[in-house]
Amino acid sequence: MAEIRVPTLGESVTEATVATWFKKPGDAVAVDEMLCELETDKVTVEVPSSVAGVLDEIVAKEGETVSVDALLATVREGAEAAAPKPEAKPAAGEAPAKGGETVDVMVPALGESVSEATVSTWFKKPGDTVAADEMLCELETDKVSVEVPSPAAGVLSEILADAGATVQAGGKLAVIASGEGAAAAPAPKAAPAEAPAAGTSASRDIEHAPSARKLMEEKGLKPGQVEGTGKDGRIMKEDVLRGPAAKPAAAPAPEPASVPRAPVPAEDASREERVKMTRLRQTIARRLKDSQNTAAMLTTYNEVDMSGVMGLRSEYKDLFEKKHGVKLGFMSFFVKACCHALFEVPEVNAEIDGTDIVYKNYVHMGVAVGTPSGLVVPVLRDAHQMGFAAIEKKIAELGVRARDGKLSMAEMQGGSFTISNGGVYGSLMSSPILNPPQSGILGMHKIQDRPVAEKGQVVIRPMMYLALSYDHRIVDGKGAVTFLVRVKEALEDPRRLLMDL
């Protein structure tokens, strides 16, 4: 007997509501077939079956609140539980390939707290021959891009999710005909007869999320007044919070904007281009605005004389590169200086969880990286234990992976503090926005020669403005200023890092 339990729900999420059961006791289930859907205050999570068999008992009913690792159901395994997989049937009007079989292409695991993705690009079309592990399509989530390889060699016989479609984790993307006769399998064409089926699917009764139904009752709304973004148009709690959907008169209405768009003259409209925001850009926009709305954000500034770092770097950069195979940059100095300061001012490395403050005895340093798709923040785990060479190598590796869209979810989660370097783009001064739930972010800026007073004399020094944005709910002004001064001292005299001063 296999137990189906509540999976990890994401950072700082400990419980969920059972929204919908897709199976009932006695139903046959296949491995990875979706059993139920859980709803948290942030995302919707689908729970797959870990084994093939028969759903024996449902322990947590719809509407119940369950905690992480709680028992949801049991699945009975064994010969009597074996049942053919529904998806293994050939498409309507199609004969199975002689001596071959069909293989389903499924949406892979998308990462913690990510339950859906958008099909970005198909590299193959129906009828194309594919090799095992050859890339079929690319999925785009609100954080990373995921390439989907072919699970078997054969012919791509059917695409079930076209480019632009939203798919759920564990959902079905395509079908591959493999084995003998696969090369002769005809490319299926979209039959007009399938259109009514789609209409039937859209018009059937949909079980909306319990929390959404309750909220609609409280607001006096009907399902037809709210646009559902869940599976098959299912209405989620966040859909109700967004308010009633605008009903278009003839054409679909554009995405609602924060400020209504003024009428555009016809001669100007022809010179404009409207492009839908990527999921990554939508998430960046939402998270940055949420940060401003949630945290009591404040920024303190200072400036640092970079002569010490630049002199040390100039003296040892050739030996450093020869020994370690990587260039000595500025970022490793800032990472080490911040780690040093974070242990002296631990509240800058902490976070708020409800009514608790979580102090961290480690530093997972996030380093903001600009990519063609938007800003991402890969994390250097246990940066306080890394040397200069290890930091430079890891930053270089993560930077390349970020620009290529190859970062995994794990590489962008769990950061405790962030450094953002706007100086590479020429920024002289800015106020960085916090990366929730972190309580601090350091902004680096352009190094510029400026006249400064030194021992009663005006001298020219390479100066950089530093900006620390912090959450005033947990970090007081004294702590923020102390942190920034410690960073300044360590950079102006790098020997302090060796002496732990």
Automatic annotation (TrEMBL):
Top-level taxon: Bacteria
Domain called Lipoyl-binding: residue spans: 1-76, 102-177
Domain Peripheral subunit-binding (PSBD) stretches: 207-244
Compositional bias of kind Low complexity: 187-203
GO BP annotations, alphabetical order: L-lysine catabolic process to acetyl-CoA via saccharopine; tricarboxylic acid cycle
A Pfam family that the UniProt record links to this protein: E3_binding
Cofactor(s), names only, from the UniProt record: (R)-lipoate
Entry GO CC: cytosol; oxoglutarate dehydrogenase complex
Region (Disordered): 80-99, 187-206, 243-274
EC number annotated for this UniProt entry: 2.3.1.61
Catalytic activity as recorded in UniProt: N(6)-[(R)-dihydrolipoyl]-L-lysyl-[protein] + succinyl-CoA = N(6)-[(R)-S(8)-succinyldihydrolipoyl]-L-lysyl-[protein] + CoA
InterPro entries: 2-oxoacid_dehydrogenase (IPR050537), 2-oxoacid_DH_actylTfrase (IPR001078), Biotin_lipoyl (IPR000089), CAT-like_dom_sf (IPR023213), E3-bd_dom_sf (IPR036625), PSBD (IPR004167), Single_hybrid_motif (IPR011053), SucB (IPR006255)
Molecular function via GO: dihydrolipoyllysine-residue succinyltransferase activity
Major enzyme class: transferase
Family classification: Belongs to the 2-oxoacid dehydrogenase family.
Quaternary organization: Forms a 24-polypeptide structural core with octahedral symmetry. Part of the 2-oxoglutarate dehydrogenase (OGDH) complex composed of E1 (2-oxoglutarate dehydrogenase), E2 (dihydrolipoamide succinyltransferase) and E3 (dihydrolipoamide dehydrogenase); the complex contains multiple copies of the three enzymatic components (E1, E2 and E3).
Classification via PANTHER family: DIHYDROLIPOYLLYSINE-RESIDUE SUCCINYLTRANSFERASE COMPONENT OF 2-OXOGLUTARATE DEHYDROGENASE COMPLEX, MITOCHONDRIAL, DIHYDROLIPOYLLYSINE-RESIDUE SUCCINYLTRANSFERASE COMPONENT OF 2-OXOGLUTARATE DEHYDROGENASE COMPLEX, MITOCHONDRIAL-RELATED
Protein name in UniProt: Dihydrolipoyllysine-residue succinyltransferase component of 2-oxoglutarate dehydrogenase complex
Organism: Halovulum dunhuangense
